[in-house]
Request: fold
Amino acid sequence: MDKTAQGGKAYGLLKSQQDEKLNGINETFLSDPMYVEEEDLASKLETFKKKYMEFDLNDKGEIDMMGLKRMLEKLGLAKTHLELKKMISEVAGSSSKDTISYDDFLKMMLGKRNAILKLILMFEGMGKEQEQKEAGPPSRKTFSDLP
Reply:
């Protein structure tokens, strides 16, 4: 990294290096026969990359406990330290690290297993889609609509 870069410029360089690194991992997933059946894979990978980079607070290509805590708080789902540790170990597998690598993140999001974090992120995405669809006044409700 350029030693003269400071502040925002250094941050921009760091983010562009991280973007390149994550793009390389995305390319690996795009060429992986295991995910060849995945619908709209390139678009999903780009969305996952943006979400991941948003919460990689240490810019090392991994989401640590604070990054995960911030992600969940932003979604309105504050969790305890123990819950965060459990979520990280669920995604990272049996490795003893306290971070979620991008590779582990993609395997979770594209895999068949339903990790808690995956479910949270999927529902967050669905909520945004519904917000966009529901423009205008709400539809009239009748008694038969009640649960």
Q: What stands out?
A: The helical segments are 7-30, 41-55, 65-74, 81-92, 102-110, 116-133.
